[in-house]
Design brief:
mainly alpha; 434 Repressor (Amino-terminal Domain); 70% helix
């Protein structure tokens, strides 16, 4: 029998929460699988890691717990992980700890209204003055920073430098035109 009753907002939100929690759990499991692979490549057993008991390693590798940043770094050092292995581990670690609101946005595939509102400001625009430029830079940074990996944040910073140059060039051009009159 097909149930055609409308889905309430609460039940939809509960489903989104469940999907978001599932995404977080999957990320913890993926992190665990990745760390286990790195440990095996290093030829270490869970018992031979100094300062970390085997049950903790087991819980991390099965995705039941997410290690602290310090413990993750210690494990990666013990495994002598290469740069690519470290980046993947940190990316998975970030995904496994995303705040619920960010995970909801990922599950729903939506972007908040303020992020959409920031789009027109991304191109070269004329701003009233230095304080407006500072406000715009802060706004764009907040709008684009949330939920991004360290590699993506670095790319955003590089991109932001280019936009800042465009904004400053537009300000300079506007001042030059105004003073020429």
């Amino acid at each position: 029998m097909n149930d055609d009753r409308p889905v309430s907002a609460k039940s939809k939100e509960a489903q989104v929460d469940q999907d978001a929690d599932s995404l977080c759990t999957e990320s913890k499991k993926a992190l665990g699988v990745h760390l286990k692979r790195l440990r095996k490549v290093a030829g270490l057993s869970g018992y031979r890691l100094s300062g970390v008991d085997q049950s903790t390693v087991s819980r991390i590798e099965t995705g039941r717990i997410r290690p602290s940043h310090e413990l993750l770094t210690r494990l990666l050092d013990a495994y002598e992980a290469d740069q690519e292995g470290r980046e993947q581990a940190y990316l998975l670690w970030d995904q496994a700890q995303l705040p619920l609101q960010t995970r909801r946005r990922q599950v729903e595939g939506t972007r908040p209204a303020w992020d959409q509102a920031a789009r027109p400001a991304c191109g070269p625009t004329l701003l009233a003055g230095a304080s407006a430029a500072e406000d715009a830079a802060r706004y764009l940074t907040r709008a684009q920073w949330a939920g991004n990996s360290p590699a993506r944040r670095s790319a955003l910073l590089d991109d932001a430098e280019g936009r800042l140059v465009q904004v400053l060039a537009a300000l300079h051009a506007a001042r030059t035109r105004t003073s020429a009159r």
